[in-house]
Amino acid sequence: MDDRDGPEFGPSGYLPERAAKRARKIVLRAPLGLQWVIASVAAGVVVLVAGIWFLQVRDSAPPDPFVAVGSIDQLPATRYDPDLDALIVAVTGRVRAFASAQDVDYCAASNRLESVDGSGIWSLTGRGLDGTPSLDEHPTLVTGGVLYVDPTRTVPAPPPDGEPATRGCS
Fold first, then answer.
1. Whole domain around residue 91: which residue ranges?
2. What is the side-by-side order of every strand in the sheet holding 86-91?
3. Does the model's pTM come out above 0.85?
4. Does residue 62 sit within a domain?
5. Domain match, 72 and 138 both
6. Would you state the pLDDT for residue 168?
7. What domain count does the chain have?
8. Is the CB of residue 98 less than 8 Å from the CB of residue 85?
9. pLDDT higher at 43 or 10
10. Is position 165 within any domain?
């Protein structure tokens, strides 16, 4: 071996000769001990227990202050719930609960929310249209096909959209 080839880093039988000379790779020279087998089995058991726990609790009811409203399959497009003082809107696969919106109904012709007395128009997200103030929203959660609403909190309403909008229902 020439001095130009560089120093020798251990036996070259573990790696190709060029890699062994450059010593760029780590070579395990001894078998792994029993502790590695035990650690991998323990990690697998932890993942299995966590998965079983998740599958058991995923359909359980959320904690207070969430209140059960009803089954998603039986909800109409809009329904005012006086106990929660919330308008429940179940249109286009998303369920929302708007605070203090008792005189609002869904209009299929415009695909919007409209006040019964004609004073306001909202998008399905609660954004006010045509200068109407937007609707505050309660947090909702669907678990096991049941809708839950947190009536103690409201999410701030988005800013209203000032562009003109026409009513679809009268």
1. 67-149
2. 78-81, 86-91, 94-99, 137-138
3. no
4. no
5. yes
6. 78
7. 2
8. no
9. 43
10. no
